[in-house]
Amino acid sequence: MSFLTRRKAIDTIGAVGETQRLHRTLGWPHLIGLGVGAIVGTGIYTLIGVGAERARPAVIIAFVVAGLVCVCAALAYAELATLMPVSGSAYTYSYAVIGEGVAWVIGWSLVLEYSVVCSAVAVGWSGYAVGFLLAAGIDVPLALAAGPHAGGIINLPAILIVAAVAGLLLVGTRESATLNMALVVLKIAALAAFVVLAMKAFDAGNFRPFMPYGFAAHEFDGQVRGVMAAAAIIFFAFYGFDAVSTAAEETKNPARDLTIGIIGSMVVCTLVYMAVAAAAIGAMPFMEFSRSGEPLAYVLRQLGHPGVATLIGAVADVALPTVILAFMFGQSRIFFVMARDRMLPERLGRVNAKGTPVAVTIGTAIVVSGIAGFFPLAEIAELANAGTLAAFVAVGLCLIVLRVRRPDLPRQFRAPMPWVVGLVAIFGCLYLFISLPAVTQGRFLIWNLIGAGVYLAYGARKSRLAGQ
């Protein structure tokens, strides 16, 4: 079983052949755009309703809890990404610090996370797209607008948007990142408009009772409720900064740009989320918008701003795909690096003349489309959270282990209070994981059992380190 502890050498981790090397074309503005584009999306446009249903007004505390854990994880990511500026994110860090066995589990979990996130956002986008088209007088048949769980046959809009984003990624990395930046600005402007209009109807009475289900996750009326139950899914609204670390190998100045991109995107998004959550709950009792597929647009319509609500829906239609773009970008890079390490078929670890991994991008789009076409949003988001939490635990552990094992390594960015940051990331994520529904934990276990079989049958024997 020694193959489980094989480790990459940190000093040579970036040494790869020319046909397997990604091109450095991105600066820090692109990375902030990538981070904000990944973070601000379905989580605030759609899942705020799900969170409010689980925690009522205390969903604001759920945002704080999830945000605190993510800030610690972001600090750990910033240190490790600048120390090892190559693609692969938590998979690469685990491979160099802990060993091949853990690296495989994390890489396999990240493949799940990024694929399922793309699917969840595509489903969320579909809800806004159908609402926008209906307002414009176009009624999309239910059979083509929802999966079997919602009385339909297939969620065709979700599939179409995934195909469109995949096509954009195939055009080129820099071109995709530039368009992403423009859409991110549009998305933030729409949320700012929502806050301004909703705050005019602010009523403090909507915050009482503030925490009717308590702090811990527990079952109530057949549903898991409580602040931590909300945080376990609201967590979906915060992560995305880890997608920035997958672009390390395509960054012009990794030491500077990765730090700005990871920390900057988290700061911007935390401020935006708190403002939007407070405005939504203050403007209207949570039970009125919590079950809507487009809660922010719903709030504005009820406040007498149908035109702006339609505009918010239109912006969501245009800008939510930035999340799909960021995570599909990240997923293809994780898959690409695993193939480059021969943990998966090596032919998948090749790029075209523009530095784009074509085969992996197309394969990702097919899988994401299948999930988005047939599964519900909440279950998809929770499953994505499980994969992310595993990766964040690994990154927090890598931070601590490297500080002990290799304190001599030159670090372009040093996380403050590394033991506190690392332990909060580790135990905070573990607590969020046990707050997920048991069915989600079970699905995550099944996914990793399948992954273990793939690793033992292929990766353990074919790994680039197997012959060393």
From TrEMBL:
Membrane disposition: Multi-pass membrane protein
Location in or out of the cell: Membrane
Pfam families, A to Z: AA_permease_2 (PF13520)
Gene3D superfamilies in alphabetical order: Amino acid/polyamine transporter I
GO molecular function annotations of the record: amino acid transmembrane transporter activity
Principal location class: membrane
Keywords carried by this UniProt record: Membrane, Transmembrane, Transmembrane helix, Transport
Keyword Disulfide bond: no
Transmembrane parts of this sequence: 31-51, 58-78, 90-111, 116-138, 150-171, 183-202, 222-241, 262-287, 307-330, 351-377, 383-404, 416-438, 444-460
GO CC annotation: membrane
Protein name: Amino acid permease
Upper lineage: Bacteria, Pseudomonadati, Pseudomonadota, Alphaproteobacteria, Sphingomonadales
Gene expressing this chain: yhdG2
